[in-house]
Amino acid sequence: MTAKEKLPRSVPGSAPRFNARESWRIFGIMAEFVEATERLNAIRPAVSIFGSARIPPDHMYYMLTEKISRLLSDAGFSVISGGGPGIMEAANKGAYFGKSPSIGLNIQLPMEQQANPYQDISQTFQHFFARKFMFVKFATAYVVMPGGFGTLDELLEAMTLIQTGKSRKIPIILVHGPFWKGLLDWFRDRLVAERMINPEDLELVQVIDKPEDVVEAIFKHYETRGFLPLPEEHELMLNL
User: 83 near 187, Cβ under 8 Å?
Assistant: First the structure.
């Protein structure tokens, strides 16, 4: 069979309408990238904080996140979160009452995400990948709190981009060692042992429990250079 013969036949009348809708969708995606880039361009240096949306304000993780965020904000870092409840709210709240901007990158979901009120700059996205790009583009560091699938998605994407050389190397800090121990053990016992990754790939992340040590680790990473991307790193970011 030829390649043409293998292709499924389109349903009459459906393809043109679908293709036209797809074409217009591209313009909407472009608009999200342009608008977000222009609004966020002055927030550097910034730290992206990730974590569960299900954590209540009286939870240890919430209070720990709020303290870390406040310390980062007072140290001169804008703080970026997903703009929703739980740990996202804690991250925005700590920065909101600190010296540097609190940024929420909100997402429109079928079950609507409620934006938290602690945002100096609030940017809403329809497309997950445009939103995820902004987390990476403007981040000087990643602080990853306990969370679920969404948190793991952000963590593994950051590790993959750095591992493959598609993004500059930034600190990726996992907070609260007991939560992350099982995952890191699995990385070592399965991924490294079965040669799915190199042993040095585990050095892409570090586990830190104390808020003050989180801030110190970020400053230590940049002590011999500035926070802004170097020319070659900027070129990398253009090709994410």
Answer: no
